[in-house]
From TrEMBL:
Coiled coil region boundaries: none
Upper classification of the organism: Eukaryota, Sar, Stramenopiles, Ochrophyta, PX clade
Highest taxon in the source lineage: Eukaryota
Protein name as catalogued: ATP synthase subunit a
Gene3D superfamilies in UniProt: ATP synthase, F0 complex, subunit A
Entry keyword set: ATP synthesis, CF(0), Hydrogen ion transport, Ion transport, Membrane, Mitochondrion, Transmembrane, Transmembrane helix, Transport
SUPFAM superfamilies in UniProt: F1F0 ATP synthase subunit A (SSF81336)
Family of the protein in this entry: Belongs to the ATPase A chain family.
Transmembrane segments: 29-49, 61-79, 85-107, 119-139, 145-168, 188-211, 217-242
Gene for this chain: atp6
């Protein structure tokens, strides 16, 4: 995997089979997704099997921190009306966080570095927001595309613009996560390949390869911060979209 920094994003079939025109192969992306979900469910199962206590363990502290962070985001962005959407947003936040962080493990696969995966997550949020808006306001939800106090002359110009900007919300949500994860992992692979090439050259370059390795350690810490921030950003934007659907902003 030293030929190209983009090879790490290839979806490879681990077990190939299909039915007629349907490809049901098990790929590395599918395996990584299932492992992430299984890890998330396993932690909850262990905690509730051994019961929560007043003197929390390390895993209980981690889950309580995730719980408090997500609940705080919803309360600050949506308010009391958004608390019923907590389970959905908590699962979204936890899944993205686990996928981002697990992708930093060597020889693993970063699910969120593929646009199709992030687009599925974004469309899930977007469709949910439209259902919330439609069930809450009915046909009055169309007022989202016409700002208050707009004249009829400007309405013909503003309505198409508002519709296009509303449709592009899930695209921007998906591209933001995909681009950040893909760019960061590509940069890490380029620096690691550069350090490996210097080490293999021998001589003074064997000693000098410590410099790119030091840069790699710093970038790894930065990429870990990006993984956490992107999960936070995706969740808080989802909260804002839900708030817009409830309040018709």
């Amino acid at each position: 995997m030293f030929n190209s920094p983009l090879e790490q994003f290839q979806i490879l079939p681990l077990l190939s089979f299909g039915v007629n025109l349907f490809d049901l192969s098990i790929t590395n992306a599918m395996l990584t997704t299932c492992i992430g979900l299984a890890f998330f469910l396993f932690i909850f199962y262990c905690l509730f099997s051994y019961k929560l206590n007043c003197f929390p363990t390390r895993w209980q502290l981690v889950l309580e921190s995730l719980y408090i962070s997500t609940a705080g985001l919803i309360w600050d962005s949506v308010g009391p009306k958004g608390q019923k959407y907590f389970p959905f947003l908590f699962v979204i936040f936890s899944f993205i966080l686990i996928s981002n962080v697990s992708g930093l493990v060597p020889y693993s696969f970063t699910v969120t570095s593929h646009l199709i995966q992030t687009m599925v997550l974004a469309l899930t949020v977007f469709i949910g927001v439209m259902i919330i808006c439609g069930s809450t306001h009915g046909f009055h939800m169309l007022s989202l595309f016409l700002p208050g106090g707009t004249s009829m002359v400007l309405a013909f110009l503003l309505v198409p613009i508002e519709i296009v900007s509303y449709i592009f919300k899930p695209l921007s949500l998906a591209v933001r996560l995909f681009a950040n994860m893909m760019a960061g992992h590509t940069l890490l692979k380029v620096i690691a390949g550069f350090a490996w090439a210097m080490m293999g050259s021998g001589g003074l370059l064997l000693i000098a390869h410590i410099v790119p390795l030091g840069v790699l350690v710093i970038l790894f810490g930065l990429e870990l911060a990006v993984a956490l921030i992107q999960a936070y950003v995706f969740t808080i934007l989802s909260c804002i979209y839900i708030n817009d659907a409830i309040a018709l902003h």
